[in-house]
């Protein structure tokens, strides 16, 4: 089941959550057999999905858990939470504030490895980070170049038995650079897994995680707490799962999904998608308030703090770069394969030109490292397009950072 709060706010798809819960219970014994007494590395452990996965891991009593995240404060919060829960007594846990693909991070992995399982959640995940060539190059650096370097390190030094990377539904027929870089992440992780001695590597795509860090729904909590208007783009649908469900997908996938495959929910995303304006109304209804939709900042400001149940929700145009009306899980050229689960299936990637991938990685690395003159968005789109046929960044008149 979804978290009760999500069910109350109509942020399903509850049928998928129930199917995933049944699969989790059916696979639990096998997962425990692999994880009890195991050595596990979690990269990006302080993020929403990473932290939820750590909490799901601990009851299986792995012997050792090494956590890496660039967010020092996030790791501190996670450490306090885990110690307070008292679930970590049977597991030796290391909390490491490191860049996972820089020399100190790679050194720690080599010193503490090998690992039975590596869960990799490191990412620049927001479309808002492709606003200019500098932030886009950082996104490419984290989501592609660093991932290739890390996967190659695992393979070369034989540091893992299994490697899992989290992708995104936006990687299916990407309309944003973020989605395209995540598709490249899948490509480079699977390519490095073909080296002799490399870990079996799988990935997963799934729906939006409700209330994840930096998300629109998280902003509802923050804005409502201080009496600010909520905001939502018009004519835009998304589908939501809880952080717990996301973590369960990430733990099931490495155990049931063959190497070189992507685990993805079996439900039709369009059928479970919810208008973002509807999520705002449901959020307010669960708190005894009524959404009053407005289309200007002035109208929203006039309603803020007013007595009565009405609460302002500012509707904005869907004209920001990289946005789709609704996302999908399976892209062109990808084929679905059964996993014997009610909730998940495997996706076989579309055929890949490995020579084109290598050439694109070399060129992108030169840009990221500053050894070539900084490229514009059009040039970077062209480089990525050689590996991701049909990639066309959806341009927009506005950026998310310009929105309320």
Structural class: alpha/beta
Unreliable spans are 1-5
Silhouette: globular
Number of E strands: 16
The biggest beta sheet reads: 9 strands, mixed
The residue fraction in helices comes out at: 40-55%
Kindly report how far apart the N and C termini lie: 32 Å
| Percent of sequence in beta strands | 15-25%
In angstroms, what is the radius of gyration?
Answer: 21 Å
User: Helix segment count?
Assistant: 14
- Secondary-structure element series: HHEHEHEHEHEHEEHEEEHEHEHEHEEEHH
Query: What's the pLDDT, averaged over the residues?
Result: 89
Strand order of the largest sheet: 3-2-1-4-5-6-11-16-15
Provide an overview of this structure.
Strands 3-2-1-4-5-6-11-16-15 form a nine-stranded mixed sheet, sandwiched between helices. A three-stranded parallel sheet has the order 8-14-13, with helices on both faces. A two-stranded parallel sheet has the order 7-10. The chain is globular. By secondary structure, it is an alpha/beta fold. It has helices at residues 4-8, 14-35, 48-57, 72-85, 103-112, 133-156, 177-192, 216-225, 243-256, 269-272, 276-285, 297-303, 354-368, 377-385; strands spanning 39-43, 64-69, 92-97, 115-120, 160-166, 200-204, 208-209, 230-233, 237-238, 240-241, 262-265, 274-275, 290-294, 310-316, 335-338, 344-348. Mean pLDDT is 89; it is low at 1-5. The longest helix is centred in the middle third of the chain and has 24 residues, at 133-156. The chain has 14 helices and 16 strands. 42% of the residues lie in helices and 18% in strands. The two termini are 32 Å apart.
């Amino acid at each position: 089941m979804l978290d009760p709060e999500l069910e109350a706010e109509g942020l399903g798809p509850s049928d998928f959550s129930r199917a995933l819960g049944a699969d989790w219970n059916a696979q639990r014994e096998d997962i425990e057999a692999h994880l009890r007494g195991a050595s596990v590395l979690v990269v990006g452990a302080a993020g929403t999905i990473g932290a939820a996965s750590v909490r799901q891991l601990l009851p299986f009593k792995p012997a050792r858990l090494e956590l890496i995240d660039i967010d020092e404060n996030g790791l501190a919060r996670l450490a306090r939470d885990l110690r307070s829960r008292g679930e970590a007594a049977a597991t030796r846990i290391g909390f490491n504030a490191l860049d996972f693909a820089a020399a100190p991070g790679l050194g720690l992995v080599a010193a503490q490895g090998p690992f039975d399982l590596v869960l990799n959640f490191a990412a620049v995940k927001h479309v808002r980070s492709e606003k200019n060539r500098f932030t886009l190059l950082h996104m490419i650096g984290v989501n592609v170049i660093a991932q290739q370097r890390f996967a190659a390190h695992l393979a070369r030094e034989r540091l893992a038995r299994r490697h899992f990377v989290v992708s995104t539904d936006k990687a299916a027929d990407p309309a944003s650079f973020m989605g395209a870089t995540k598709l490249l992440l899948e490509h480079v992780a699977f390519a490095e897994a073909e080296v002799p001695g490399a870990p079996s590597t799988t990935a997963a795509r799934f729906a939006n995680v409700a209330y994840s860090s930096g998300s629109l729904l998280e902003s509802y909590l923050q804005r409502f707490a201080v009496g600010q208007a909520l905001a939502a783009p018009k004519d835009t649908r998304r589908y939501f799962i809880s952080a717990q469900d996301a973590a369960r997908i990430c733990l099931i996938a490495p155990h049931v999904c063959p190497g070189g495959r992507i685990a993805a929910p079996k439900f039709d995303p369009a059928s479970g998608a919810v208008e973002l304006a509807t999520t705002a109304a449901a959020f307010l209804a669960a708190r005894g308030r009524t959404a009053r939709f407005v289309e200007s900042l002035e109208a929203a400001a006039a309603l803020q703090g007013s007595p009565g149940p009405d609460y302002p929700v500012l509707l904005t145009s869907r004209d920001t770069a990289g946005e789709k009306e609704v996302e999908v899980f399976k892209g062109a050229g990808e084929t679905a394969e059964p996993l014997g689960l009610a909730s998940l299936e495997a996706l076989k990637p579309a055929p890949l030109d490995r020579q084109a991938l290598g050439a694109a990685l070399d060129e992108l690395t030169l840009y990221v490292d500053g050894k070539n003159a900084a490229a514009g968005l059009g040039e970077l789109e062209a480089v990525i397009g050689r590996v991701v046929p049909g990639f066309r960044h959806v341009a927009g008149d506005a950026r998310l950072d310009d929105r309320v």
